[in-house]
Amino acid sequence: MKTRPNRICNRNTVYRKESGRNGITMNTRGLRSQLKDSVPVAGLCPQGAYGVQDSLRSGFTSVKNELLPSHPLELSEKNFQPNQDKMNFSTLRNIQGLHAPLKLQMEYRAARQIQRLPFLQSSNLALDTLRGNDESIGFEDILNDPTQSEMMGEPHMMVEYKLGLL
Amino acid sequence: MATLVMNQAPVGGFSFENCKRNAVLEGEANKVGCSMPAARKTGTTICGVVFKDGVVLGADTRATEGMIVADKNCSKIHYISPNIYCCGAGTAADTEMTTQIISSNLELHALSTGRLPRVATANRMLKQMLFRYQGYIGAALVLGGVDCNGPHLYSIYPHGSTDKLPYVTMGSGSLAAMAVFEDRYKPDMEEDEAKQLVRDAIAAGIFNDLGSGSNIDLSVITKGKVDYIRPHDEANKKGVRTGDYKYKRGTTGVLAKLVTPLNLELVEETVHTMDTS
């Protein structure tokens, strides 16, 4: 059976749906611009030791699952906070000069280091105050609250992973 | 229950884990010939008009789920702040949650500035949030209120574009309502005239659009006062039954009567206490 090759993006078409097997369609327009300089999608550089896919910890892999996001918003939502920060810092640099983003980024790094152990939820109060998130409510506070998560990381594994012993 | 090994801490917000599974399920369902259940929408008529001292917002009260009326009397005019109200069309859950989130954010903002919130602030917050989600949040809103700069009325589309106009309509019955507005709108109307105009516009939507129906809700916002009139007018009243199929006693004649008493004797009695710990 001849299968159509999956093309990621075609700049010149107006609106294009991609039809794979099983009648699954997905709108892949505009993906290339999002994939280009964002947080790298897993699978292209496997994280296990010796550069081989770590099946024990990240499960079985499939290139299609990792190259194409399952929802058009997935990539933009994952990178929303870093993109906002980048935009704010570059505006600040243009208005006030290089010192302003430098000092702010130093404060961000300091605030990010105040954390509990990896498997416990840290409140990130200083980081939230710096970003201004303590005065606003969004979907990340209502849906999927990490403090109410039903899964717990195994403490030993998570600490070893963080310390790089794994 | 076994604990899973996670590498990163979980984050809040939308989770896209099940998207692929849902796409596969939908593909399977389409092959067999069924379809996935539809979300509850408020196929709707909502509208607003600016009059001399303020803003009148109007909405119908029908919520549909595909071809079925899910709620005959739902409330589509949502509270945002004491001087700002918002009508919502589109997916019912999306409009509810969006207006509640913006209402909370506006309250926090007002506490921070110490002033009564402005309609333009609510408009900008809504528009930035809807654009962030690229239209996947299906909420089409009519936002109206009175602040220190006078009465304002905005319409906000699901993809994030907004319009600031003296009269707006949204929803599936928007064309019918807009026809009434275009015919009879005058700038600087009196309050009663404006209420009658909005009532007629919503009634046009109710009688000419399948997705709108039931009653008409109005909300009149002026400087310092909000009148939330629910229902203002019951356009579609459910009919009253005029006949009765019950037969009177004695309609059927009794020929003979036989009574057999049933003697039951108590064999055993036990008491089980409930474990309410």
TrEMBL record, chain A:
Gene Ontology BP annotations:
proteasome assembly
Q: Which family does it belong to?
A: Belongs to the POMP/UMP1 family.
Q: What is this protein called?
A: Proteasome maturation protein
Q: Name one GO cellular component term.
A: nucleus
Q: Which UniProt keywords apply?
A: Chaperone
Q: Does the record carry Glycosyltransferase as a key word? A: no
Q: Is Iron tagged as a keyword? A: no
Pfam families recorded for this chain? UMP1
Question: What organism does this protein naturally occur in?
Answer: Perca fluviatilis (European perch)
Automatic annotation (TrEMBL), chain B:
Q: Name one GO molecular function term.
A: threonine-type endopeptidase activity
Q: Name one GO biological process term.
A: proteolysis involved in protein catabolic process
Q: Which residues form the active site?
A: T44 (nucleophile)
- Chemical reaction(s) catalysed: Cleavage of peptide bonds with very broad specificity
Pfam families given in the database record: Pr_beta_C, Proteasome
List keywords of the entry alphabetically: Cytoplasm, Hydrolase, Nucleus, Protease, Proteasome, Threonine protease
Annotated compartments = Cytoplasm; Nucleus
Keyword Hydrolase assigned to the entry: answer is yes
GO cellular component terms attached to this protein's record: cytoplasm; nucleus; proteasome core complex
Q: Where is the Proteasome beta subunit C-terminal domain?
A: 235-271
Does the keyword DNA damage belong to this entry? no
Task: Family membership, please give it.
Answer: Belongs to the peptidase T1B family.
Q: What role does it play? A: The proteasome is a multicatalytic proteinase complex which is characterized by its ability to cleave peptides with Arg, Phe, Tyr, Leu, and Glu adjacent to the leaving group at neutral or slightly basic pH. The proteasome has an ATP-dependent proteolytic activity. This subunit is involved in antigen processing to generate class I binding peptides. Component of the proteasome, a multicatalytic proteinase complex which is characterized by its ability to cleave peptides with Arg, Phe, Tyr, Leu, and Glu adjacent to the leaving group at neutral or slightly basic pH. The proteasome has an ATP-dependent proteolytic activity.
Q: How does it assemble?
A: Component of the proteasome complex.
Write down what this protein is called.
Proteasome subunit beta
User: According to the entry, what is the taxonomic lineage of the organism?
Assistant: Eukaryota, Metazoa, Chordata, Craniata, Vertebrata
